[in-house]
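Comment thread on ticket #2218

A.B. wrote:
> Attaching the input chain for the structure job we discussed in standup.
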Amino acid sequence: MEEKQRNKVGYYSVIPSKILYNKELKANEKLLYAMITSLAYKEGYCFATNNYFAEELGVHPKTVSSWISDLRDKNYIKVEMVRKENKQIIQRKIYINDVPYPLNNGYQYQSKNGQAIHQNMEDNNIRFNNKNNNSNTTISEAENTNQTKNVQTEDKSFTLTALGDILCHNTQYWDAHNTSTDEYDFSYVFEDIKKYTENSDITIANLETSFAGKERGYSNYPTFNSPDSLATALKDIGIDIITTAGNHCLDMGFSGLSKTIDVLGKNNIEHLGTYKTEEEQNKTFIKEINGLKVAFIDYTYGTNGIPVPEGKKYCVNLIDKDLIKKHIKMAKDENADIIIASMHWGTEYRTTANEEQKELSNFLFQNGVDIIIGNHPHVIEPFETREVTMPDGTTKQCFVAYALGNFTADQNAINTRDSIILNMKITKKVDGTICIDNINYVPIYMYKNTSVSTHKFKLIDLNSEIETYENGTNKSISNTTYNLFKKELSTIEEESSVIAEFTPKSENDYTIKCKIVENNETIFEVKTFAGSRERAKRIVDNWKQNASEIYPKILNLLLDDKKE
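C.D. wrote:
> Ran it. Output below, let me know if you need it in another format.
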């Protein structure tokens, strides 16, 4: 605003006592509230942009977004998004709740000496609200009804690669340790699969350890602490984002959590899910990828019984529906095109999603999430594309991967060395719809070569190892190892493609769905019912364990053309 306009007589902002003396509000939140009241006087709402407020207050637009969310959550303001028929946001309206004085259009400012305060504000206030503010670019220029030049005119896409759990056990530390230099080098572990992780527009993985420093001692289960060089190796293979909200994030306390964040930052790896300050938690994590604004959110079911430090509830995102809805709303308010949720959930070593995972996935989709990448079980669980009906009756395509297995670990439980590198293409079409396609995966295996003295651990591409052995070009593995790789590949394919679930309709009525999926396309699906939870679970378990036998039998029966 021009200085002469600021100084005009009659330019007022009103801060009610309930705002002014509210100790739960930041000082700048109170100031922001006052600015909104002054800009809302004529129309009953303010439509100034976050960029405008940020410039006036000397902060980042995301900070403004968090303040607006806080004022809204405390019911001091109401935020309304005006959308086109295709759901594209064209304007944001901010209303003042419970104003203690009448105003134009249903709101009125308190009068002073018999004259309404707003009567002298026409020239300098509303003109600026209507003209100047709306000429600024905003966090999403779609907020502005007049900025038609930014309407999407072509499809926009990006590729996403997702990886599983990153653990590191003592055996891996010893294997990577150079005794002469006392340094740790993990780069050799990823040499064969690096080509699959470094070329996507965005690559994301999940951290199940901490980087709390050498002085704390490197450790594994039950409390993990790994060398910083592991983070360096992960960056070297192209990992852009690491989700840190997990059951091990507080293994080394809040100081270890903070140090982990610092180490990731030093390696230019972005993180989400754990935070050093409350302000960081209240920022929306958005990356602009190929012209699309992609929001990422991350939550964990718990912290292994380690209490979240008193006064630092913000340090980790726990699975809390109110918190999730708040973060989704913040992403929408900042006009995110895509919302991707990372979930630390499920039952360890279970190869099917549990009921809580299914319920939470429905909750996330219904509230606006497009893609869910799950982890924690340490084994592969199924993934699938869904057609989701939204509360307003519209449908949208969504995707969930319940768990991707261990990306790196030295666990001996069954299936814990299996994992997949999941790839997909996400497109926002001109009409606003989201399309998730080109879904594929690379089956990988954490191979431990006990025949060598060092560098035993290596992530291998199972398809490549099997193919080169069969064509005679790979002489480095034995027939026994080849058979092991074949077995693990078969396991991964089955875990990724055989889907079974049941949903309670009532106490004595359960709906059961059994599927076989190939290349993300359902090639067989059967729906049936059961009169008890026990029977439903038995059907699901039998399908999961015996689908490879049941499906051919069903197919043969359907193809049988013999007449009675």
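A.B. wrote:
> Thanks. Noting for the ticket: Confidence is low (pLDDT under 50) at residues 1-11, 100-149.
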